[in-house]
Amino acid sequence: MTAYKFLTADGLGLFSRFPWPLPHGGPGAWVDSEVEPCRAGIHACRARDLPYWAAPELYEIELDGPIDELELKIVAPRGRLLRRVDAWDASAVDDYGRMCIARAAELVAAAPSVLGDWAPTGVPPPESARLGYIVARMAEELGGVAAHLEERRRQSAWLVERLSLA
Questions:
Q1: What is the pLDDT of residues 19-44, one digit of tens each?
Q2: CB atoms inside a 10 Å sphere around CB 136
């Protein structure tokens, strides 16, 4: 199964700090692990999970073995990085941040008495991908958990289109 994995700028797992074998002209080396979701295993995301894990580097990852499908991620006993998704660059991160700010403004305009203090202003900060969470929380304030999930689906669709992912 092919999925996606966000890493730090220097190729480390976001939570594990594991130094991933990066692909250089071909797939990286296979990594094997016991599977215990949220503790051990090769954690990755589907396209619909992208906004939950956004980080500096995005890779396509191949998973092997039984795959545990969880709500916001997938976990397998084996995986290897296939390629860096070059479309996830500084421009895409900035565009994502700007999209989130524009969406926040739409939500505030729809309910200023509820969300007036939530509106982010100005240029997206360097880690603008985190704005997706804020916008989803704004939507949740207006429409509950279903609105939060719908906002995340909207963000996923935007990322898939912007990054030309399958």
A1: 999 999 999 999 999 998 889 999 99
A2: 23
